[in-house]
Amino acid sequence: MIIKRVFGILLRATNGNYQLQFRLRTRTPNTRQPVTCMTTTLLQKLMEGDETALEQAYLDYRSDFLQWASTNSSQSTTELADLYQDTLIIFYQNLRAGKILHLDRGIAPYLFGIGKKLLLRRYAAQAKRELSFDPADEVFLQGITLPEENKEVDHGQMVLRKALEQLNETCQQIIEWFYYHDYSIEMICQRLGYSSEEVTRVTKMRCLKKLRELMTKTAH
Amino acid sequence: MELNDRDQSLIKKYLFSRLTQPEETEFSSRMVNDQDFRTEVEFHRDLFASMRDREHDRLKKKLSDLENKHFSKPSKPNYTRWLLLIVLAMLAVWLLWRFVIAPPTPDAKRVFAAYFSPFENTVEIATRGQNSPASSAAWKAYDSGDYMRAAELFDQLPNEEQSEATRFFQANALLYTGKAREALILLEAKTSKAQFEEQRLWYAALAYVYLGDDEQAKKRLVAIKSNPGHFKFQEAGELFHQLE
Fold it and tell me: Which of A139, A200, B166, B231 could form a disulfide with A189 if both were Cys (CB 3.0 to 4.6 A apart)?
């Protein structure tokens, strides 16, 4: 992968009365160890589903995120940490789903963009300042899926979830890999150490069939 | 409905936003015209959403644990709980002492019973006719063996009617009814007169035997043993050896 430069960017939230500037880690040529490499490596690991990298990202960006969030809201550290966790998870899930399009920007802009959306959604009434989005900043957030806040789970989904919990661990894993992480049959075959892709395909079909049976049973 | 590979691929592309333009057109058309296909899409959409929510919950717990591990403030020690534990421990020790260690053991009571008998009343006989009705009633109760009543009546005597004798016999009555501690207060009170001094020493020793305090009992028995003329010289020797 071609290593690209990460430029310092300014994240501005303005209402005409103030400017909040956040400067990302920047790289100057031939000085210290390029931050870009670390960010790229971290991104790569996150895309591959490395949850240790997720924990690392959590620790790396926590301080800056909380500082920004506390400047713009009156929530407690606990609430803001909760917001940060949701923000990072949403970024991670969208990254793995291929919806993060401007990887050259690094992680921070996405965290702050997603964080701002969640902050507005949850705590707009208690915001210290009126937060608004610069349309230019929002471009890179297009396509990112944010879960609905406090969404009620309908009966069908409830039945599906209960049925999923009743599947054996292997079936749960296969279904998650194939239908959620979009692994190919070949990849699943390799991970599980099956003898052939056909065996994997048949196992997947049986798991799905079992899931449907459990759903029918649970529904009644 | 069992999906064929093509439909499976189409639905997955839809979920992962990878449909090409022609595929999008086909997908939209089938969603409108093909009920079975639409059902399968909804099933896969729900499956995808459930998987995402499960993953979210799992990761949320992981990050929350990380937050608590690295950033939560240590909770202040719960002094109230410790204080309560100390108080309960002290109470337990006191109860242990009061009801287990201090109280007379069955053996102590047996030994006491073997050596104790209320001192015979010779006082009232000598002073009969000179006593007040209250005093006479107390003596009468003592002589009739109603030691509990006697102890009460002796205690109720006015100060001017109380004497070393009334206090000594009151202590006897108290010892008889098992109130050894109260009896000791009377037996070991400092007096200016030497009346009943020998007897008080003996009954004090017995009171300590009753209470299980062998050390204090032996001290008094040693004092009696050093006086061969003591009216309980022999019994004191026997009791001393028994306590050892």
Answer: A200
